[in-house]
Amino acid sequence: xxxxxxxxxxxxxxxxxxxxxxxxxxxxxxxxxxxxxxxxxxxxxxxxxxxxxxxxxxxxxxxxxxxxxxxxxxxxxxxxxxxxxxxxxxxxxxxxxxxxxxxxxxxxxxxxxxxxxxxxxxxxxxxxxxxxxxxxxxxxxxxxxxxxxxxxxxxxxxxxxxxxxxxxxxxxxxxxxxxxxxxxxxxxxxxxxxxxxxxxxxxxxxxxxxxxxxxxxxxxxxxxxxxxxxxxxxxxxxxxxxxxxxxxxxxxxxxxxxxxxxxxxxxxxxxxxxxxxxxxxxxxxxxxxxxxxxxxxxxxxxxxxxxxxxxxxxxxxxxxxxxxxxxxxxxxxxxxxxxxxxxxxxxxxxxxxxxxxxxxxxxxxxxxxxxxxxxxxxxxxxxxxxxxxxxxxxxxxxxxxxxxxxxxxxxxxxxxxxxxxxxxxxxxxxxxxxxxxxxxxxxxxxxxxxxxxxxxxxxxxxxxxxxxxxxxxxxxxxxxxxxxxxxxxxxxxxxxxxxxxxxxxxxxxxxxx
Amino acid sequence: xxxxxxxxxxxxxxxxxxxxxxxxxxxxxxxxxxxxxxxxxxxxxxxxxxxxxxxxxxxxxxxxxxxxxxxxxxxxxxxxxxxxxxxxxxxxxxxxxxxxxxxxxxxxxxxxxxxxxxxxxxxxxxxxxxxxxxxxxxxxxxxxxxxxxxxxxxxxxxxxxxxxxxxxxxxxxxxxxxxxxxxxxxxxxxxxxxxxxxxxxxxxxxxxxxxxxxxxxxxxxxxxxxxxxxxxxxxxxxxxxxxxxxxxxxxxxxxxxxxxxxxxxxxxxxxxxxxxxxxxxxxxxxxxxxxxxxxxxxxxxxxxxxxxxxxxxxxxxxxxxxxxxxxxxxxxxxxxxxxxxxxxxxxxxxxxxxxxxxxxxxxxxxxxxxxxxxxxxxxx
Amino acid sequence: xxxxxxxxxxxxxxxxxxxxxxxxxxxxxxxxxxxxxxxxxxxxxxxxxxxxxxxxxxxxxxxxxxxxxxxxxxxxxxxxxxxxxxxxxxxxxxxxxxxxxxxxxxxxxxxxxxxxxxxxxxxxxxxxxxxxxxxxxxxxxxxxxxxxxxxxxxxxxxxxxxxxxxxxxxxxxxxxxxxxxxxxxxxxxxxxxxxxxxxxxxxxxxxxxxxxxxxxxxxxxxxxxxxxxxxxxxxxxxxxxxxxxxxxxxxxxxxxxxxxxxxxxxxxxxxxxxxxxxxxxxxxxxxxxxxxxxxxxxxxxxxxxxxxxxxxxxxxxxxxxxxxxxxxxxxxxxxxxxxxxxxxxxxxxxxxxxxxxxxxxxxxxxxxxxxxxxxxxxxxxxxxxxxxxxxxxxxxxxxxxxxxxxxxxxxxxxxxxxxxxxxxxxxxxxxxxxxxxxxxxxxxx
Lengths: 513, 380, 445
Fold this sequence. Notes:
The complex is a heterotrimer.
Chain A: H1 2-6, E1 23-24, E2 29-32, H2 36-47, E3 52-56, E4 67-70, E5 73-75, H3 87-93, E6 102-104, E7 109-113, E8 118-121, H4 128-135, H5 137-161, H6 174-179, H7 182-189, H8 193-204, H9 218-225, E9 227-228, E10 231-232, E11 237-238, H10 241-255, E12 259-272, E13 275-281, E14 286-288, E15 291-294, H11 298-304, H12 313-317, E16 326-335, H13 342-347, E17 351-355, H14 358-370, E18 382-386, H15 388-391, E19 401-411, H16 418-435, E20 443-448, E21 452-453, H17 458-469, E22 477-479, H18 493-512
Parallel strand pairs in A: 1-14, 2-3, 2-15, 3-12, 7-17, 15-22
Antiparallel strand pairs in A: 4-5, 6-11, 7-8, 9-10, 12-13, 13-14, 16-19, 16-20, 16-21, 17-18, 18-19
Chain B: H1 19-25, E1 30-34, E2 37-42, H2 46-55, E3 58-61, E4 66-71, H3 75-82, E5 95-101, E6 107-117, E7 120-125, H4 130-136, E8 143-146, E9 151-157, H5 161-167, E10 179-183, E11 186-195, E12 198-206, H6 210-220, E13 224-225, H7 228-238, H8 281-286, E14 292-299, E15 309-312, E16 315-326, E17 331-339, E18 347-350, E19 358-363, H9 367-379
Parallel strand pairs in B: 3-13
Antiparallel strand pairs in B: 1-2, 3-9, 4-7, 4-8, 5-6, 6-7, 9-12, 10-11, 11-12, 14-17, 14-19, 15-16, 15-18, 16-17, 18-19
Helix pairs in contact in B: 2-7
Chain C: E1 4-6, E2 9-12, H1 16-26, E3 36-40, E4 51-52, H2 56-61, E5 72-73, E6 76-80, E7 86-90, H3 93-103, H4 105-133, H5 138-142, H6 145-156, H7 159-166, H8 170-181, H9 193-199, E8 207-209, H10 217-227, E9 231-234, E10 237-244, E11 247-252, E12 257-260, E13 263-265, H11 270-275, E14 279-280, E15 291-299, E16 312-316, H12 320-331, E17 341-346, E18 349-357, E19 361-363, E20 366-368, H13 372-389, E21 397-405, E22 422-423, H14 430-443
Parallel strand pairs in C: 1-12, 2-3, 2-13, 3-9, 6-16, 14-22
Antiparallel strand pairs in C: 4-8, 5-8, 6-7, 10-11, 11-12, 15-18, 15-21, 16-17, 17-18, 19-20
């Protein structure tokens, strides 16, 4: 209403003395949601000299350190590995100075196949062709051409995977990478089953699309567009696991003088005229600022915190994604020991992946989508496993080891119940046995985390991210929730991009004034 | 009142509630289809109907206008979002005109919203918007239902409209307020409306009673039925553009360049960007202008055809989108889609018949124009 | 003595798409007449069967307005559900809307908005997708700007998402999914299947039947081929040899051999094409996995189609869940238990298509190809299913012919490429797809 715009300036109270019914001003920006992207955005805003407050959004905080899941065995929740952490973000915040460190870089991967075969590959994708040549001479030439084109395309498409404009690109394979399903793309390029299974496992891992679904292959290119420890397509294990990455980000935010107020939960975003004016807190007070960055889900950020009466009808229609069809399950395993042979010892510092055969993977998706009929053993799944205790001794007791595995695809259930936990545990044990025969017997405890929804196809995610970036035209409102991120894992590009946009917005306003 | 788009391609239009009555009065037997409903273009003769309305009153079957009933605690908020009408400020009985805009600020339709009860609103639109309203209602404690097929709707238009309505027991509460009630057991809503130059009453009542009220009206004062063609003259004289004819409906336009913003169809005053939020308002502020606008032209000729070219000094500047002969002005009046540079400059319109024949034309000031100008002045 | 002939293009299968493609290819260049041959393999649909609709560009290129063609579109697409309930959509959108409104108000009212939006979506997406089919990186450039977000949404939205967002009636959703997805072999939850709904709004997606008077479409196209000097051969195909990059040799059962730089398979010769290892041309729209079975059920006397819709295509999917189950089964190498089918009545035959069949079968983990027993088992299952949906109207079955066009999932081919035999992609607009591909092949695009 016009009267709101004409209202006198609200009384300003000093920062930090938030009380019910009180109105607080004098701030430049508010960030809602203390997740990774929220922290990243807050840190960048603070670093740019904006007086920034970080509020909780009523979501679970990812601030926990290692958790003891069995006596003497510790694990960190959430992502264990880093493969696409935004290099610009690292540079802008100097995250290495704030404690980001890698206990292992350029992790080698060992792929295990359904027929018992295995393949050790270098952590450097540019050297992947050596392993492929050794495995399949027929495909050596086409793989060399493919990996070069794919890595080039991945690098060129990185801005798009961050939610930006699609670049102009040429190359016979690029449209194919964009349109193709995992299976049809691989079939068109290679003949060797192991090679196809290995790439299919990487492309389908954590993805909602079945390997036969169109637009599925792009997830591999998305993965390869990332970098870890400065190397494209590589994978690294951060010191302190996922908590280590979060901690470094939090320190960076603190160093840039972000005011952490995680005890305060934002309830509603105040929109006055066409711009944001601040937030109403759970306690009934108001915190006012001309910029709000929201790192919560799109549904919360728009439909609940702004409300349908202030957002465009067409925009609202694009908010609610269909429920995820499948998920990934994170499982922590406590092992009271491992075989002492050289191969096993070497593998402890590697990333192990079970790559199912084509028919196994098709069955795995069908079963996960059908919700794993009770009583039936789940079919073989893709599994990625690492041994955090190999990098950080303190995570397991002397002689023991902790393993962290991610299984995909599993059924998506909003709440993990006992049946789900039991079935996932069963699948994890079966898969683990394929990676390290005999090791399954040394499992003394299993911890099953709630399912993580699988990533929608890259183009779907990109389209949604682009639509949400418009924020329905509300000025000063910036969105970097999970829907703004393309792919899974620590990325932070969404937080970095909105922070940059918010800083531009703030400077534009200052210049206009 | 909303003037609906006609769609003469429909093979088999549905009868409106008043079809039987209209058909028996329509000796001219000239019909068209509007939103899939059969509507008479003329009952006897266009000029006769026009003059009857001008002098006394006439009655029109407006069953082809799409009607929605919005109910619920948040019905007003939902309509205020979906349309530009100031729905939340309406008192019971009041009506407001407005537009429906899409998220980019382009006009999707013209509408009227009337508050019939504390939590009951009537939305009239020139065409159905099932999908748009389905989406608009999400997240609100309100329901919106298409009631077009369940009601009969007639409009009494002209200077004596209220007298005639009163004689039949159908009068509105006042010049601005609708009356809800029962007339001999029949639920009715009588609402004051304006149609171009004509004031009148719109009566909406259950379909089953369609003929009862029509008969009662006929017995009371026997107003002459008026068809679409005569109404078309009043519409153009009144400066009310017709969606789908004078401008493209944004939901249907194939090309963004065909879509129009409120000010480009001369209806900026129906979508004041300084009012409470409505769909598309934020986009409207910075939307790129097409450089074209609608205007009503009065021609120095008795005949004109839609589609005819309009010329300025340096060549063609636009074309007519709809045209009619006005018996009152003794000349053709027409809506024209013009380049904004052509406004205020001498214009000529190509005439049907001989090649190269043109008539001088001048922009004709309509009541809608005056509202738009007053609005612009207030904005400054 | 063997005859050897040289052509610019050989097309296998003389059904309507094959003939239209041949005639269009022969006239692809304004000044040079291309040498095109069509092989009638005997796999063609029975006389009197409905043909795919003719898109405008084919009509123009072949000057079909000069013919006596009196073909008229199939009137309705009808889904049959349990307890003899059925639901139909008509070529006339308004009629569909009216009928739906009669059945259940809200969905019927939404129909016009839904149909209009689909048609606009298809218009907008078609051009870009056609560019992408030619390998021009059209998709990436099409994704720029506000239009790009719309296109991206269209490409990745699933049919299920769109229908659930619009309609309430599960039967309507099943019907729309069936009509749009079954010809393409999609299930409705894969990304991009939403576009199939849009593509199904293309007028050329409607099949046509010959009028009572005047020649059939196939006859008219045969005349067009004759006028364009297309050679017609009548024989099944034995094999296709690749002599070198630019020479394919088609060996016919009757001993003749045809030489051409490119060989294209029509829809009718699908089983032959599958046997010979045809690669489908790339289409962003049709992402069929597995195989399609065509079953011709010959009856002792003509059966009566249900309802009054004699000129209709009937769908029996049961539910959207069943479509998904069937596609999952096909992906897993199983023949679905209750295969979704669509069929037409042609004189004393019922021509049935079962679009969700596995390309290869798996028993436990052993993979094997289709055997005669598998075919027969499928045929029996389909006749059983037919009997169930038609409520016992299928009596006196004289013969069941089963053809399975089995191909493995494979990447679509862009241009002629190294493929031995190229097939048009599965689409709603079969004539258009075949004609477009044939013209691209002779033009060397």
